[in-house]
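Appendix B, record 7
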Amino acid sequence: MLVSLHVKNLALIEEAEVEFGPGLNILSGETGAGKSIIIGSINLALGEKVSKEMLRENAEYALVELIFKVENPQQQKLLEEMDIFPEDGEIIMSRKITATRSVGKINSETVSASCMKAVAALLIDIHGQHEHQSLLHKKKHLEILDEYAKEELKEKKETLKACYQEYQKILEEKKQAVTDDVQRERELSFLEYEINEIQEAHLVVGEDETLESSYRKMTNSRKIMEAANIAHNLTGGDGSATEQIGRALRELTSVAEYDSELEQIAEQIGEIDSLLNDFNRELAAYISNGEFDEETFFETEKRLDEVNHLKDKFGGSIEAVLKAQEEKEQRYQQLKDYEHYLEELAKREEKAEYALQKSCKEVSDIRKRYAEKLTKLVQDALVDLNFLDVTFTMAFQNTSNYTANGTDDAEFLISTNPGEPVKPLGKVASGGELSRIMLAIKTVLAESDQIETLIFDEIDSGISGRTAQMVAEKMNVIGKNHQVICITHLPQIAAMADQHFLISKNVVNQSTVSNISRLEEKETIEELARMLGGVKVTDTVLESAKEMKELAKSVKKFQS
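Structure tokens (predicted):
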């Protein structure tokens, strides 16, 4: 459940905090007061794209913070699988926006926008102001069905995708395989040349690193020898560190018997003298063995050039060169025994197509089984939304080609009058009817998904009268098992509120500011009266508002 929303410096909002409750939360206000900013700010906190224009003028940053209470064990488990752990049963999601960047956090830990969206998908479902228009596109219908059936479909669709990719890979190979004799002989000759070029190099994994190290050492041999000789002179010759330390050791040793403390000090310098002598012997040996060998340098440079040439030509590493050799040898054999290769390719294609067909059928069977359940539940929900003689179903056809999503071309069909055949939504439903259909679908999906919070941004567009009352009653029913946050301009829906918030716009210091406040009982009736009567609220309108609120209370009591 969404417990609270905190917004700062976003569009018309200077700073606002809202504490939502369970059940039906209604947001209302005059047109242009900033109702859409509230939904927009929630979307921002949940990872949606940020427009620079959203930042309040002259503000250094904008901040949106959401606090969710997570009590559903299934939700907790899914969140934990994403390494998100509620603290004291709460999840805090925030987004800080500046002119140049935005930072999203979950429980104070910075996360990506994609992570925020994934977490949001478990906690909240937002129905945007024009989202119902997406029902006019058939593609959306299959997405809705797959969302409803996702628990059983998920692994099957992954298998289907893998089968499709394998089948497409073979088709591409088949397309590349079609070649004439002259072209094939030309390719064979070139492959033979490249295979021999790699084979004759006798490459060893890791030798390039060894060669580069040796080459680097030899090209800097003069500098190395100069430094080594200077170091040897400083530590091993006349007047060197070795001679000075040896003299110091002899001096201390000669008097150590008179003071036990000096014995330990003499031992320490003795160890230094021994280490320095060992160091000098090793350095002298290094210098004597470090003579520059021009022939060795030439061979090293030549081999390094050969290795680097092959690396540049075949993939950037010795491993890549050897892999290229293997692939070219395989291709060479294919072209050598071309007829056999084509036969094997045809068998692979047949086998891959069979696996793809089988996977498509499995996915399609699941979809059709769930489509029956989904359309029945949506039809029942539509009856509750004043579609009294509605028939709602889903038609399946096959696509002309295989796709990564199967071969189903599915579409919702509806009939709103007795005796009329079902037709596609776009040919039957008006804007107001589409919004109610989407409301019914969202209700069914929320029940199956156990999403606790549903947000509806003006779901009531294009409806009034008896239909508005039935939508209001449906909202109340949904609010029994979910938290519902709804922006509305209809008093019938607003009257059903468990919590009612008013969004208003004022001018403060010559700047327009939106505010949001929770209404008490008396204020709720005044807001209902405004929604009923417009600019002038008469005593008669106030009485109507009171009556509407009392009627809503009796409906809520009856539906509880």
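Remarks on this record: Residues 312 and 392 are 63 Å apart (CA to CA). The radius of gyration is 39 Å.
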